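Cross-posted from the bioinformatics board.
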Amino acid sequence: MRANAWGYVFGEALRSLWRNGFMSLASVTTVAICLAVLAIILLVAVNLQYMASFVESQVEVVAFVDGSVDRAATRDLEARIEALPGVREAVFVSREAALERLKEQFGEHRDLLAGLEDPEANPLRDSFEVRLAGAQYAAAVAGELERMDGIEEVMHRQDVVDRLLAITQAVRTGGLVLVALLAAATVFIISNTIRLTVYARRHQVGIMKLVGATDGFIRWPFFLEGLMLGVLGAAVAGAAAWMGYDLVVETLTAAIPFIPILEQQPLLGNLMQLLLVLGAVIGAMGSTVSVRRFLRV
Amino acid sequence: MIEFINVSKVYGETVALLDVNCYIDASELVFLVGPSGAGKSTFTRLIYREEVPTRGAVVVDGVNVARMRRREVPFLRRKIGVVFQDFKLLPDKTVFENVAFAMLVTGASRREINRRVPEVLEMVGLADKHKAYPHQLSGGEQQRAAVARAIVNEPRILLADEPTGNLDPDTAWGIMELLLEINRLGTTMVIATHAQQIVDALGRRVIALRDGQIVRDQLQGVYHAR
């Protein structure tokens, strides 16, 4: 088609969008709600997964050394831990090293930790990070460590990882079902909007056929209208998700500086692209349904 | 230019046309007469393939449109202009836009449209009304706009289904003279009409239909058989 004809096609789609006012608004809103829910689910899911992998990448069992044990005795402690069945390696982390590590996690908030370098002020304890030969040894090793002299407390994180992964899975499955239902409803609402357009323009379509417009030419404005509804809704959802995520990340990192949460970029950029594509697909499907059923060309 | 060969058209129980045979030459003008329900509209609709015959062949410009594929129909329509009793103008578009619309959908450029549309409006006598909307025009003016739209793509054939049916006698004459002028420039024309006075006064070829059959085909015909 020529530029002139495309101008007409776009113009018709926009005019119709405007003329259908309320229905257009309803369509854009449902697309936006559907995709915003999808965005929330995706953002929560990827962050849960990130958290799980972050926790998993940490040591599997941490044994805190009793404050009464002096540094010389920790060598002996290390040997005893490594002798336990299922233990691959025990790495000693001094309280000074732990403080350094914490500072790194605090990043730009590190000044909060100022003054703790003084050995008297450092609240952290010496510990052993115990790497296991396999996750299945976690419970047994943790039990042995708890009974060991000189060990004050044992943390073992496999349960945390498992729970995070389970939640991730639930969020994903439930979320996808919800999004599928919402998407179906959205396609339906868009197809209804386009149906109204088809009805409003039935005379025009009749005349177009009469003067020799091809079926494709007649269909384009309707198709584009649906596409625009979908993309507009996606843009609204994307903008909301973007601002919402910024706010959440800001609030969370202010409250808990070392919380493992994914950076805004490239996550939000990718999400935006995904939403726009999905919006376009939903809009195109909705209009195709109506053009097929009601526009008898 | 137009040939009907053993054409029948049946809608359910109703027989609209029965075994019609006729030939209309290029540049010819034919009045199609007969009582309501005689099959005049079906006759014209078969030519621009709004309908497909139940039996027989309708040959337009050398092609049997009865067996034409759907996607070829738009290109047939660009060779045929159609004018109706109720004008069928788009109410939210100006006269210029209504006429330009017919060119636009065929993929004409803005420049071609801006050159051709004023020319056609001049020809139908609406040059000064190009910015008016249909509701601002009289019936005769609306029909002139519809004729302009029908001929803007320079069709080989112009079909008119009771083009003066909604107009007073004087206005009807104006429209008919316009159609005659277009025919003089070489456009084949089929006009279905009840305008007895006009048909009788002009003495052109008349095809009379009754109950779906051609009952009379006269070269210098009148409305009623004598």
